[in-house]
Amino acid sequence: MKKLLLTGIVSAILLNYGCSTVPLSGRNRISFVNESEMQTAAAQSYSTLLKAPETKVLNNADAVRIRNIGQKIAAAVTKYMNANGYASQIEGFKWEFNLIDSKEVNAWCMPGGKVAVYSGILPVTKDDAGLATVMGHEIAHAVAHHSSERASKAAVAQGLGGLLGAATGGQSAATQGVINQVYGIGAQGFYLLPNSRTQELEADHLGLIFMSMAGYNPNNAVGFWQRMAAQGQAGQKPSEFLSTHPSDATRIAQIQKDLPEAQRYFNSPTGKPVN
Description:
This protein is mainly α. The protein has one domain. 61% of the residues lie in helices and 6% in strands. It contains nine helices and four strands. A four-stranded mixed β-sheet has the order 1-2-4-3, with helices on both faces. Helix 5 (128-143) packs across helix 7 (173-213), helix 6 packs antiparallel against helix 7 (173-213) and helix 7 runs parallel beside helix 9 (248-263). It starts with a helix and ends in a 12-residue tail after the last helix. Keywords: Hydrolase, Metal-binding, Metalloprotease, Protease, Zinc.
C-alpha cells in the first residue's frame, strides 16, 4: 500500500510539471481537463445567466465603453498570442462583453472569452484605464486557462486524498480522522490555495501587458488595486495564507515590479515588446 501511495504522489508530481506552459510567465501548469468542453460549458452557463429573469443586462453608455475596451484588449491578446506561438491556446474563443446591473463589486471572464462586468465595480474603476485593468486581469485568467488548471489540481488533490485513506485503512478511526484533517489543511494551505494565489498574480502580470498593448497606461493599475483594497474593511479579510488571493500589499508590490515590462508593450504594433 505504501508503494501505491508513493506511485500516486509521483504521478501527481509528473502531472504537475509535465504539461503546458502559461504565456508570458513561462510557468508549467497541470491541465488535463478538456479546454474545448470547458468553453462549451462556459458558453452555455453565460447564456443562461444573461437570459435569467433576475439578470438585468445593461445597454447604456457604460456598456458601450466596456464592449469597446474589451474588443481592444481581445485584439491585443490575439496579436500577442499569434506573434509568440500561442495561437492554439485561444482557439475557439468567442469574445462577449456585457455589463450587468448589480451592486456587487466584481467582474469575471469564463473560458472562451465570456466577460461580465458588474455595475457595482464602476465607481472603483473610475475611468477607461481602470476598466482596462480589471478586464485585462479577468481576461488573463481565461487566456492562461486557470479554470482548467484549478479543476485539474482539485482532481489530483482528491485522488491523493483517496490514496491516503486507503493507505491508513488499518489505523484506528481516531487516527484516520487526525490524518485526514491534517491532509485537508495541507492540501488547501500548501497546494490548492497557493496555486490560486499564483494564478491571481499571474493574471495581474498578463493583464498589465494586455492593457498596455491595447493602449491603456499600465501605471493606472496601481491606483485601481489601491481603490479595490480600500473596499475591504479592516479585519474582515482572511490571512494571506488562508486566502485564494494574495494580500493587497503583496499584489500592489508585485504589480509595481511588473510595470517596467508592461510599459515596453505600450501600443505594440507587433505583439512584441517595444525597445
